[in-house]
C-alpha cells in the first residue's frame, strides 16, 4: 500500500510543472469548497456543480504560485482516494458551512476524520463560510467554540492547526474577507518550505557531455540497417520474427517490429493499445518458437511505452511532412527520429522500481517521472479534395441525403452495438420521419414527404454495399465515417436515382410507399454488389486516416466521435431499452446506456431536496458508481458520475420542475414510473453526448484513461478540464 501511495503522489506532483504551494480545500459536501475555489481563481460568484473527484486551479499571489485542490465532498468516504490529496507541505483549508446548523455534527465529524487520519499535512486552517447568511452569523460563536474544543483535544497533531475565528464575515458568495485568507496563506507558504517538485531519486542517464548523442545514434542506426534482416521487406521481417528466425533482436529491430505493427493499426481506434496486444502476441510466438535464444520477456508497460513513442514520432511526420510514414520506409523514419535509438530513454519517465515491478510487466502503468509526450497539436487540416469527390447533382436531394446518412448510421449502430438490424431499423424510421418533418416545417418544399419505402430502400442498398466489402482490407464500417464510405461506392451513393432500377416512378412516389415498406416491381433489392475497386478502397482508407489524424489537431472532434445520426439513433435506442426493462438499483448495469440511466435514476430519486436525505447529489451520483470503484475503475467512475451530474445541473428549469413533481409521487407507482420514463428521454435528448461511451476522449488521452493507475485512483483529465461551474458546458459537440 505504501508503495501505491508514493506512486499516486508522484502522479499528482507531475500534474504541476512549476514549484508551487499546494492548498487542499476540504470540508463536508456542499459547504462551499468549489465556490471558494472559483472565487479565489476568478474573483466571481459561480454557480457550481457538486464535485465528484476534485478540481484543480492554479493562482499566483504575491509571488507565490498556489495550486488549489478542491476535493468533492462526494469522495470523502473513499479512503482509497483521499490519501492522494495530502502530502508533506500541503496547506489544508478546512471549510465549515456555518449556516448548516442541521448538519453541524457532520462537519465536526468530517474534521475529526481528517485530524485522525495521520495525513502528512504541513499546516491546517479552519475557516467558517457562508457568513453572509443570517442563520450563519447567529450560529457562529457556538460553532467556533465547538471547533476549538475539537482541535485542542488533539494534543499531538504534528502540524499547526489554526481556527480562524476572526473571519466572521467570510463568504465565498460575496467575496468578503477573501483577501485576509489569501494574505495568511501567502505568509504560511513563505514560512513552510515551498513544495518544489521533488527531483527524481535517481537521475536519468545524461548523454555524455561534449558531443551530441545523435551522432552516435545515427551511426548505430546506419550500421544496424546494413544487417541482413534489415534487407527484408516489412512482411518478410515480421514473418521471420514470429518464427524466431531473425538473426538479430537488438534495439533497432525491436523498434522496426513496433513500427510495422503500428503501421498496421493506424486505422484502429486505440492505435497504441491495439498494437501492444498484437506486438506482445507476436513476441510470445517468437519466444516459444525459439526457446532460450532471446533474453526478452513479455513486458506490457515497456512495450506500450515504446509503441507510444514510435507512434508520436509517426504523428510528427504527419505534421511535418503531411503524411504518415509508410511501412517499408523504416530506416528513413528512424533517421528522422534519432531519439528512438536511445534504448534507455525510459529512464526519463520511469524509476526502475516501477518499470520492473510485476504490475508494470502485466499491466500498462503511467510513468512516475516525466509524463509521456501528448499528441502533437498542429496537424494541418487537409484541403477538401474537391477533385476526388464525385460530382454532386445540381440540386442535392435533401431526402435522399438524410435517408442515406441514417441508413448508414443504422447499419453502423446495429454492428457496433451488436443489435438486431430489424430492431435498429424500427427505431430509425421515426427518427428519419421527424427529421424530415422538421425540415419541412422550417421551410416548406425543402424536402419531400417522408416515405418508409424510400427509407428502407437506402438501408437495403447500403447493407448490400457493406456486404460487398472484402473482409481483409481494414475497411470496418464501425471505423468509417459516412463520408469515407461514400468514396467506396462513388456512383451508387452520389446518385439519388439508384431506385430507378427497382421501383417504377409511380410506385416510388405512391402514398402507399410512404405509409409502409412496399416491395419493388422491377427488380428485387440487391443483397450484395461487386466489391469496390482498389483505388476506391485506398481512397476510403486515406480519407479515414485524414479524418482521424486531422482531428488530432482539432480537439473538438476526438477520434471516433459518432455522427449526429449515430447519436440520435443511440439515444433513441437507449431510451427504448431502458423503458422496456425495469431498472433495479441493486444490479449494476452492464451496458453504457444502462450506466447513464442508473446514475440518472439515483439522482432523481433524491432531487430536488438531497440534503434532507443527508446526502448531496455528488454523494448520490458517486454512490451510484461504487460498483465501478469496486471493480477498480476509479477514474471511469468519477468521470461518468460527474458528467451525468453536470448534465443534470444544466437542464432547463421546466425539467427540474417535472423532476420535483416526480418526488411527490408514490415511489414505484404507475404514475411515478411513467414520469421517470418521461424524464430520462428529456435528459438524454438535452445531453445526447452522454450516450457515446467514448466521450472521455475529449478529456483524457488513451494512455491515461487505459492505465492501471486510472483504475486504482482518480486521474485528472490530461487533455481538457471537466467543467465544474454551471454554464461552462461546451457545445462543440454537434
Ligand atoms: N450564501 C452562500 N452560499 C454559498 C457560499 N459558498 C457556497 N455557497 C452555496 O453552497 C452550495 C454548495 O456550494 P459548493 O461550492 O458547490 O460546495 P462544495 O463544498 O464544493 O460541494 P461538493 O462539491 O458537493 O463537495 C451552492 O449552492 C453555493 O452557491 C457562501 O459563502 N454563501
Ligand atoms: Mg465542489
In words, what does this structure look like?
- Mg(2+) binds at residues 34, 51.
- Residues 206-225, 380-389 have a biased composition (Basic and acidic residues).
- This protein is mainly alpha-helical.
- The chain folds into four domains: 18-191, P-loop containing nucleotide triphosphate hydrolases (Rossmann fold, 3-Layer(aba) Sandwich); 221-343, no CATH class; 386-553, no CATH class; 584-712, no CATH class.
- 49% of the residues lie in helices and 6% in strands.
- Strands 2-3-1-4-5-6 form a six-stranded mixed sheet, sandwiched between helices.
- Helix 4 links the parallel strand 4 and strand 5.
- Helix 9 (251-265) crosses helix 10 (271-289), helix 10 (271-289) packs across helix 11 (300-321) and helix 15 packs antiparallel against helix 16 (421-442).
- The protein starts with a helix and ends in a 22-residue tail after the last helix.
- The relative contact order is 0.09.
- The structure holds guanosine-5'-triphosphate and magnesium ion.
- Guanosine-5'-triphosphate (GTP) binds at residues 29-35, 48, 50-51, 72-74, 129-130, 132-133, 171-173, 616, 618.
- The site of magnesium ion (MG) has 7 residues, from helix 2.
According to CATH, the fold-level topology of the largest domain is Rossmann fold
Over the alpha carbons, how many angstroms does the gyration radius reach?
30 Å
Ends distance: 44 Å
The class by helix and strand makeup works out as mainly alpha
Strand order of the largest sheet: 2-3-1-4-5-6
Average pLDDT works out at 84
CATH architecture of the largest domain: 3-Layer(aba) Sandwich
Outline type: flat
Number of E-type strands: 6
Amino acid at each position: 500500500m505504501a508503495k501505491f501511495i508514493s506512486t499516486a503522489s508522484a502522479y499528482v506532483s507531475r500534474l504541476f510543472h512549476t514549484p508551487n504551494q499546494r492548498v487542499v480545500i476540504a470540508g463536508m459536501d456542499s459547504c462551499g469548497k468549489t465556490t471558494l475555489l472559483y472565487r479565489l481563481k476568478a474573483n466571481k460568484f459561480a454557480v457550481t456543480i457538486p464535485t465528484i473527484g476534485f478540481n484543480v486551479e492554479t493562482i499566483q499571489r504575491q509571488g507565490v504560485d498556489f495550486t488549489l485542490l478542491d476535493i468533492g465532498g462526494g469522495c470523502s468516504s473513499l479512503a482509497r482516494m483521499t490519501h492522494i490529496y495530502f502530502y508533506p507541505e500541503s496547506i489544508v483549508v478546512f471549510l465549515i458551512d456555518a449556516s448548516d446548523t442541521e448538519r453541524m455534527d457532520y462537519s465536526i465529524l468530517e474534521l475529526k476524520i481528517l485530524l485522525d487520519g495521520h495525513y502528512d499535512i504541513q499546516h491546517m486552517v479552519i475557516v467558517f463560510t457562508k457568513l453572509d447568511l443570517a442563520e450563519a452569523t447567529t450560529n457562529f460563536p457556538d460553532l467556533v467554540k465547538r471547533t476549538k474544543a475539537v482541535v485542542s483535544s488533539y494534543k499531538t497533531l504534528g502540524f499547526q492547526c489554526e481556527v480562524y475565528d476572526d473571519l466572521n464575515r467570510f463568504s465565498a458568495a460575496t467575496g468578503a474577507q477573501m483577501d485576509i485568507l489569501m494574505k495568511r496563506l501567502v505568509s504560511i507558504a513563505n514560512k513552510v518550505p515551498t513544495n518544489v517538485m521533488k527531483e527524481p531519486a535517481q537521475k536519468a542517464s545524461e548523454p555524455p557531455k561534449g558531443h551530441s548523442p545523435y551522432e552516435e545514434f545515427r551511426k548505430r542506426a546506419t550500421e544496424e540497417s546494413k544487417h541482413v534482416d534489415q534487407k527484408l521487406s516489412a512482411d518478410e521481417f515480421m514473418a521471420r520474427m514470429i518464427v524466431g528466425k531473425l538473426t538479430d533482436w537488438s534495439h533497432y529491430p525491436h523498434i522496426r517490429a513496433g513500427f510495422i505493427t503500428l503501421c498496421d493499426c493506424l486505422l484502429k481506434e486505440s492505435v497504441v493499445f491495439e498494437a501492444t496486444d498484437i506486438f506482445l502476441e507476436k513476441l510470445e510466438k517468437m519466444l516459444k518458437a525459439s526457446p532460450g535464444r532471446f533474453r526478452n520477456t513479455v513486458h506490457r508497460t515497456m512495450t506500450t511505452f515504446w509503441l507510444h513513442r514510435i507512434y508520436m514520432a509517426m504523428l510528427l511526420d504527419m505534421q511535418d511532412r503531411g503524411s504518415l510514414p509508410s511501412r517499408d520506409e523504416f530506416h528513413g523514419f528512424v533517421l528522422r527520429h534519432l531519439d528512438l535509438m536511445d534504448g534507455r530513454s525510459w529512464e526519463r519517465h520511469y524509476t526502475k522500481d516501477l518499470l520492473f515491478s510485476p504490475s508494470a510487466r502485466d499491466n500498462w502503468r503511467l510513468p512516475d517521472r516525466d509524463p509521456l509526450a501528448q499528441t502533437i497539436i498542429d496537424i494541418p487540416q487537409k484541403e477538401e479534395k474537391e477533385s476526388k469527390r464525385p460530382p454532386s447533382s445540381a440540386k442535392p436531394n435533401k431526402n435522399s441525403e438524410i435517408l442515406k446518412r441514417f441508413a448508414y448510421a443504422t447499419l453502423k449502430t446495429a454492428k457496433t452495438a451488436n443489435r438486431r438490424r430489424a430492431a435498429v431499423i424500427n427505431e430509425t424510421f421515426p427518427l428519419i420521419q421527424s427529421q424530415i418533418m422538421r425540415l419541412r416545417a422550417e421551410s416548406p418544399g425543402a424536402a419531400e414527404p417522408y416515405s418508409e419505402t424510400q427509407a428502407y430502400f437506402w438501408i437495403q442498398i447500403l447493407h448490400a454495399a457493406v456486404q460487398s466489402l472484402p473482409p481483409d482490407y481494414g475497411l470496418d464500417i464501425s471505423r468509417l465515417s459516412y463520408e469515407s464510405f461514400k468514396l467506396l461506392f462513388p456512383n451508387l451513393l452520389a446518385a439519388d436515382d439508384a431506385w430507378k432500377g427497382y421501383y417504377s416512378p409511380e410506385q416510388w412516389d405512391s402514398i402507399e410507399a410512404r405509409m409502409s415498406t412496399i416491395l419493388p416491381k422491377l427488380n428485387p433489392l440487391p443483397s450484395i454488389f461487386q466489391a469496390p475497386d482498389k483505388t476506391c478502397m485506398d481512397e476510403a482508407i486515406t480519407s479515414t486516416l485524414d479524418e482521424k489524424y486531422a482531428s488530432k489537431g482539432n480537439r473538438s472532434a476526438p477520434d471516433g466521435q459518432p455522427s449526429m445520426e449515430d447519436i440520435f439513433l443511440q439515444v433513441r435506442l437507449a431510451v427504448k431499452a431502458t423503458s422496456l426493462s425495469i431498472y433495479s438499483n441493486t444490479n449494476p448495469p452492464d451496458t453504457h446506456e444502462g450506466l447513464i440511466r442508473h446514475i440518472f435514476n439515483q439522482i432523481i430519486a433524491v432531487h430536488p431536496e438531497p440534503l434532507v436525505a443527508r446526502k448531496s447529489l455528488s454523494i448520490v451520483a458517486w454512490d451510484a458508481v461504487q460498483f465501478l470503484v469496486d471493480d477498480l475503475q476509479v477514474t471511469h467512475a468519477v468521470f461518468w458520475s460527474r458528467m451525468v451530474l453536470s448534465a443534470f445541473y444544466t437542464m432547463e428549469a421546466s425539467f427540474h420542475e417535472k423532476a420535483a413533481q416526480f418526488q411527490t409521487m408514490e415511489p414505484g407507482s404507475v404514475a411515478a414510473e411513467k414520469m421517470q420514463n418521461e424524464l430520462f428521454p428529456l435528459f438524454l435528448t438535452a445531453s445526447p453526448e452522454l450516450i457515446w461511451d467514448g466521450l472521455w476522449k475529449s478529456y483524457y488521452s488513451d494512455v491515461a484513461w487505459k492505465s492501471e493507475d486510472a483504475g486504482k485512483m482518480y486521474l485528472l483529465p490530461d487533455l481538457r478540464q471537466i467543467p465544474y461551474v454551471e454554464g461552462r458546458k461546451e457545445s462543440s459537440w454537434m
